[in-house]
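HUMAN: Can I see a protein plus its fold?

ASSISTANT:
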Amino acid sequence: MDESEDEINIPWLVDYFSQLTYHTTLVDPRIDKIEEQCRDLFLKDYNIEILSNQGGELCGHYPRHLVVPTTYKECTPVEMSPEMRDLIHKARLARCRSRFPAPVIVYKDKFVCRSATLATTAEILGRSGMEWLQGTWEEYSSEWETCDKLREADKELLSYLKVKHIFDMMVENKKVKYGISITSSEKADKEKRYCDFDLYSVPYPGTEFFTEFRTKQMCAEKMHFDWDQTFVNAQLMLPDSAIVRDVSLNWEDYKVST
């Protein structure tokens, strides 16, 4: 590939990342160029801070330099509090592959964030155990206490980011492979820890479905998602909030089967 700037565009990005699994340890100067252009795009609208993730110490699947928008471009820049990084470090293992809630948009002094869904107890214990052996994680006294502290840290991070609404797009209550739960979700949390947030269960087909789209040479003709599959057990659930009331939609038409 020619290293000229006009080569790094959306079609190229889609093609490039469809051929590899990204990790912060991946060495490729093109990734550095992509991160640089993403930063420049953020700077068109926001004042930003850069959160270092070199080596994947926060998350191995997020960029090495995380762009955090803090205020609109026309507003006074605000420095990111050291408390935020501390909260991220404490909470990151609560979610799958440490994909903690990362701010991507600022709207009226609130963050719109993206993250993975909640990790299961098995993943939490596996990752925290590995980090404890490496000396980068404190030892907790019990399985339940470890999970509970991480869930509480996750909630604390969400509250710090002024998150009030959580949108869960999983088509399952818990993702299960070979009879083993490999992810959980806020709506499936038995302790109801996330009851202080407005939870929106909005099932939407994920990567497994779009893999089929790719194998059909990106042709969507005659493709539809089968909502009657046995593993699809999440229901559309919306709280009685202003967001729902102000949207003029017939929610009975949410799922369309053909």
The two ends are 42 Å apart (CA to CA).
